[in-house]
Amino acid sequence: MKNNLTWFLGLIIIFSSCTVYKEYTIDVYKPGQINVPQDVENIALVYRNFKYKNDTLQHYYKHDYQLKKATRDPKNLDSILVHFCLNELALNLKKNQFNRIHIFPELFTRHTGTKLPAIDFKIIDKLTTETNTDLVISLETYSYFYTEFSADRNTPNPREVITANVWAVYDPMANRLLERKTMIDTLYWNTFDENGASVKSNKLPPRTTALKIASQMAGENYSKRFFASWETVGRMYSMPPPSDFEIAEKYLLKGDWDNAITIWQRYAEEDNGKLAIHARYNLALAYEMKDDLETSIKWLNAAKKVASDYRSKDDLKAIESYNRVLLQRQKDILRLNSM
After folding, report:
1. How many helices (H) and strands (E) does the chain have?
2. What angle do CA 218, 219, 224 make, to 5 degrees?
3. What's the rounded Cα separation, in Å, for the pair 161 and 115?
4. Residues 146 and 212 placed together within one structural domain of the fold
5. Which residue of 166, 232, 308, 322 shows the fewest CB atoms closer than 10 Å?
6. Domain count, the chain
7. pLDDT of 253-268, one tens digit each?
8. Higher pLDDT, 228 or 326
9. How far apart (Å, rounded) are the C-alpha atoms in residues 15 and 284?
C-alpha cells in the first residue's frame, strides 16, 4: 500500500448525536478485473459489427440542443472509428502483457437487431486456429454521439463525445465467454483553464477529430481491465467525543499508526460500552493500513460483536460494508501473488 495518502476530511454519517465518521482516500494495488488464463500470449481483436435497431444517429449531432445532419462525414465513419478504437486497445495490451495481436475489424458483416445475438463459436475456433491465437477480444457493438453547446460569441463552442461500447472476451480453448462488459465514456472540451478563464490558445477539435480521440480513449479504457493498477479508494474512521480520539486522529493523519493503535486500544475493552465499537473499528482500519488484513478482520469482527450486543443498526451497516471491502482485498492480494 502506498504511504503517500491523500487526505480529505468531511462529515459523512452521524451514528449518534455525538459520534461521526470521517473519510479519507488511499491508493491500493488491485489486480486486473478480467481473469485471463496464465498461458495466454497471443490474442485476436474482432469487431462484431452489430448495431441495435435504434442506433441510427452515426451521421447526426446536436448543436445547441438541436439535432442536425453531419453532411461532411465520410461514408465509412463507423469503420474508421472502430479502427482507432481497436488499434489503441492493441497498443495498450501489447505494451503491458501480450506478445502478438491480430486485428480483424471487418471479419463480420453489419447486422442489426433488438438483442445482441450469441456468437457462433465455430467462427471463433476457425479464427484462432488459423491465426494461432489463445484469446479473442470482441468489440460487440460501438456507438458514439457528438454534441456542441452554445457559448459566448468570443468563445468557441464547448463540445462533447459520448461513446457506448459492449465488449466481450472469449476463451476459444473452453468455448466460453469470460466477460461481457458495457462501457460508457464521455470526453468534454472547452477553452477554460482551472481558474475559469478562457484561453484563446486552447484549440478545440472538430467533429471528426473529436470522434477519433474519443474512440482511442474507449480502447485505452477497456485495456485497463486486463492489468493490475493502483486505484484510489475511500475508507472511514470513527470520531466519538473523547479527546483521546482527536489525539489519535492527529497520528492517523500523519500515518503514525502505532501511536494511534496505542490510544484506540485503551477503549477497545467491552466495559467501555459503545466506545469499544468505534475503537475496534478504528483498530481494524489501522491494521489494514499496516497490511495485516488477518488482524484487521479480527478487530472488525470484535467490533461487530459489541455492535450486535447494543443492537446498533448504523454501526452494523458500516461494519458489514467494511468487512466486504476487507474480504475483497484478501482475494485481490491472493490473485496478485499468483501472477
Report:
1. 8, 12
2. 100
3. 24
4. yes
5. 232
6. 2
7. 999 999 999 999 999 9
8. 326
9. 18
